[in-house]
Amino acid sequence: MMQLHIVYMGALPEGEYSPSSHHLTMLQEVVESSSLENILVRSYKRSFNGFAAKLTDNERQKLSNMKGVVSCFPSRTLQLHTTRSWDFMGFNESISRKRNVESNIIVGVIDTGIWPESDSFSDEGFGPLPKKWKGACRGGKNFTCNNKLIGARYYSAIAPISSTRDEDGHGSHTASTAAGNHVNDASFFGLAKGTARGGVPSARIAAYRVCNDFGCGNADILSAFDDAIADGVDLITISIGAEEAIEFNEDPIAIGAFHAMAKGILTVNSAGNSGPEASSVSSVAPWLFSVAASTTDRLIVDNIILGNGKKVQGMSINSFSLHGKKLPLVRGKEILVGNLDYSRDCTTNDAEFCLDGCLDSSKVKGKIVLCDGGDSYQAGVARKSGAAGSILKNDESDYVPVVSFPTSTVRSREYNAILSYKNSTKNPEAEILKSEAITDSAAPVVIGFSSRGPNPLIPEILKPDINAPGVHILAAYSPIGRISADYNDKRSAKYKILSGTSMSGPHVAGVAAYVKSFHPDWSPSAIKSAIMTTAWTMDPSKNRDAEFAYGSGHINPLEAITPGLVYEALKPDYIKLLCSMGLSDKVITSISGDNSTCPKGSNKESPMDLNYPSMSAKIKLNTPFKITFNRTVTNVGLSNSIYKAKVSGPQNVIVKVEPPILSFKALNEKKSFIVTVSGSPGEHFLSSSLVWSDGKHIQDTDYSPRDTDVHGSHTASTAAGGVPSATIAVYKWEVRLQCNILEIPIAIGAFHAMQKGILTSTSAGNTGPGKRTLVNFSPWSLTVGAGTIDRRFVSKGVAVNIFNLENKMYPLVYGGDVPNTRKGFQPSYSRLNSVNGTLVKGKIVFCVKLNDGSGPFFANATGIIMQGVYSDYALTYPLPATYVGFDVGGEVFNTPTATISKSEEGKDSFAPYVVSFSSRGPNPTTTDILKLMSNHDPTWSPAAIKSAVMTTANVMSSENNTEAEFAYGQVTIVVALQLLMELYGILTILHLLLASTYEASVIASPEIKINVVPSVLPFKFKGEKLSFVVKVGGMTNRTLVSSSLEWKDRVHQPALHYDLREFKTCEQDLEVYVELLIYLLLSISNCLDIIGNADKVQVTDGAIPVRQFAYGCTMQTPLN
């Protein structure tokens, strides 16, 4: 009997090797049948070596003994993990658990009820009920609890309900996600088949039904909280909420959760499904654990195959198959029903949107109908009208619907492509495939419908708190629950795929229960803190609203049990917060449920001082701010430990932590610290991070490409600003400067990139204007110096000063006269902590060195004036500031008062010139290649692109750039002339146009003679290569001589440049440097060929050493 086997052969051999041929040869030697047709299923030949083939046992045995075969084994069908979300978070079935403790945890689920007969709630293998359980099983008629589902209650304040039995499916889904059993072979009609499980499968469940067809009544919700707390649950998950935030004293979930918190019970609540609108989050109370919804790496798609064979990717949860049959394709407007047939009048537009009663059944039967909008409801209309399938256009939602017959939802671009195909053929047809799961490499991303912050009631409390998987989650369902929006869909399912923050909340509840199994004595806020501070940092480039979308980050279950430090808040802390909001004693009593009143003076405190695991504040745009947060952490890690603070944030924000080091000597010891955040926001949203680490426990660790420095965001937007239609891929890393080119990761990476046809553009460095200061100098990369543009910022000096003192004069003090004697810094520099806050408050500080302005800013000074060598670039500061030269500084120093003007944009008529900080050559390492130095033709090599950029650069003025090519570069031959000498350069040029003739044009100083042989290059076809020799000679007493060579064809002017310069180094009076750069549109694949094949230099009269200059390229101009 033949069976599919995998033959694994290890890594691919080096050198010439044809995997497919080798695999066929091996099979020919062992296969007993005469034909290999359909035997070889797949050759593995891209990343490793092997193949899949249908073999008998005898053939398998023979292959196993062949040379080169590592293993040969049957190909088994592996199960896709249904609750993929847990594995996606690294929370797999093999993790360490305390099952005996976990079995004593009771999860209360307030929802639509539960289906007790579901395998997810079977009590097989469970022991007796926990002794602490005080609840009851009052599930109603024909409802039975067990040792897994230990409690059930239902409430009927707004409508008659006779059972806790789940008629909707929502409650069963959330309960099984949090604490459901392991169930093998669970699927939704074959989709996502695998093992379903909850976060804590050994935990017990108590179900409280508060919802019916009319909704979920506030009275019933409060009743459920009341019972659940008294019954003895350990935590509560409630995936219910209003469409918008409700004042705490009127919000039954906030009130119930407050009571639960007071009894040591954490309440996990879904953030809401009203996103992506700002402030749409409805779960905002600080004692609630509010959860947003994000994607996992499993994406369910539904492909469409058009009659021309083209595949279009759509989205839907479609369990139906057309079995390879293509059906006629029609538009809704083409099958408009006759008005006489129905009581309603239908327009063409109504039919185009597939509205109920507007499709002609006789015209749509057996066909796939295109609908210009809608969701699964429109699909139901099409099905009701007799269509065999439907394709829906939907740009409004990222929600993927469950459909009642073959249907796929597409965006406008795909929809228009389908229409284009339909209009191009007489008999358009298509097939809608059954949905399938593919990998989503972009995950996790917060889904659009997930409600966003900021917190509409207390902006100082960041909401949502965290995000967790909430998209395409398969879990238990009610067999009598609706499958789709189509009321005529009569299917029944035990497990169903759902999306929503209702699905993300139970994930966090499961993790919270897992944490509690390791730390039974932790308070609700400690558990919440542990989960928040160990979350994965999310990528804001994929999540437009950043922390307002995902909170502290993506839940990371395994790390949550060892947070090291926790931020704990108890009932008195929450009372104090409510008092700081101005709530009356009466309201406080209403929320707390006891006689709590506001402590004296609490109305003067800020909600920012609640000991919360995140910090948030509302500030005014373009207005300087200074905010202080007070926090206390509890040591739950090692008894003796030292934690150090690490802060990151945008450049225009300064974050200071005092003290920056926390030393603990015992468990549960508490330490307090103060965080001061200041700056001037030029954006509507600013984000920073604080990490406490002892080397073992790291909180808020940034493992994502999130740009906490803003440097990467700036460079990415600048690069893609030149090609706005281009896409961007971001890679975050830390650079360590090395001296050896083979030890520089940029050089190594760029070399391998070049081999694959990828050009690497690198910055020259910011350590100029000294010579040999380049930090990126490999010959295969494009190294770029920094030049000015014709705009400069001035503020009676140089600075980007966004503050306006409105010409008001302030006292001027010298930093050296107002020292902070406790810190011991040089006060004349006015660095951080160096000036006395009492003496500089309300004054402008004068200092004698350029700095970041943090010293005067934190000392509450009004502004800062810095003096030094005149700067040709401007910086930004957190307070009014300017930087002046010594000439102006001398006058200012003797002035008793001063003001600082807001910066203005001025015209720089000298631009472009290389700015002083830009690193200079010569190249310090590769002494034979000139350094400092597109989308024209996708076939060009990196060297060709680099050459094109360099040879078309604008020639810069050496008068404005004293270091000339050392600063800005040229495509040059640079020679230091001492005696009569000759220089030969044999260069190969690749022709990129049709037939044309180039003539050499030489512009030389009188004492320089340049001969080009041949002086005419006649090209006959594109891609042709021609070589020439450059001979340079002469004698001069000058230290710097410049000449140029250009190739002209009357179309491209100039084609290339050469400059000849002499200079004296500081090491030797007359050391001669000769450099030759060959990147002149070369069609070669690596830099070694450039150096080895194209570079030939001869020097006469004294064996002058050959060394390299490291110039920058001149100002870049776009290709024509």
Automatic annotation (TrEMBL):
<keyword id="KW-0732">Signal</keyword>
<dbReference type="InterPro" id="IPR037045">
    <property type="entry name" value="S8pro/Inhibitor_I9_sf"/>
</dbReference>
<keyword id="KW-0378">Hydrolase</keyword>
<feature type="active site" description="Charge relay system">
    <location>
        <position position="111"/>
    </location>
</feature>
<keyword id="KW-0645">Protease</keyword>
<comment type="similarity">
    <text>Belongs to the peptidase S8 family.</text>
</comment>
<protein>
    <recommendedName>
        <fullName>Cucumisin</fullName>
    </recommendedName>
</protein>
<keyword id="KW-0720">Serine protease</keyword>
<dbReference type="InterPro" id="IPR010259">
    <property type="entry name" value="S8pro/Inhibitor_I9"/>
</dbReference>
<dbReference type="Pfam" id="PF00082">
    <property type="entry name" value="Peptidase_S8"/>
</dbReference>
<feature type="domain" description="Subtilisin-like protease fibronectin type-III">
    <location>
        <begin position="995"/>
        <end position="1053"/>
    </location>
</feature>
<dbReference type="InterPro" id="IPR036852">
    <property type="entry name" value="Peptidase_S8/S53_dom_sf"/>
</dbReference>
<dbReference type="InterPro" id="IPR045051">
    <property type="entry name" value="SBT"/>
</dbReference>
<dbReference type="InterPro" id="IPR015500">
    <property type="entry name" value="Peptidase_S8_subtilisin-rel"/>
</dbReference>
<dbReference type="InterPro" id="IPR041469">
    <property type="entry name" value="Subtilisin-like_FN3"/>
</dbReference>
<dbReference type="InterPro" id="IPR023828">
    <property type="entry name" value="Peptidase_S8_Ser-AS"/>
</dbReference>
<dbReference type="Pfam" id="PF17766">
    <property type="entry name" value="fn3_6"/>
</dbReference>
<dbReference type="Pfam" id="PF05922">
    <property type="entry name" value="Inhibitor_I9"/>
</dbReference>
<feature type="active site" description="Charge relay system">
    <location>
        <position position="502"/>
    </location>
</feature>
<dbReference type="InterPro" id="IPR000209">
    <property type="entry name" value="Peptidase_S8/S53_dom"/>
</dbReference>
<feature type="domain" description="Subtilisin-like protease fibronectin type-III">
    <location>
        <begin position="609"/>
        <end position="697"/>
    </location>
</feature>
<feature type="domain" description="Inhibitor I9">
    <location>
        <begin position="5"/>
        <end position="81"/>
    </location>
</feature>
<feature type="active site" description="Charge relay system">
    <location>
        <position position="170"/>
    </location>
</feature>
<dbReference type="InterPro" id="IPR034197">
    <property type="entry name" value="Peptidases_S8_3"/>
</dbReference>
<feature type="domain" description="Peptidase S8/S53">
    <location>
        <begin position="103"/>
        <end position="553"/>
    </location>
</feature>
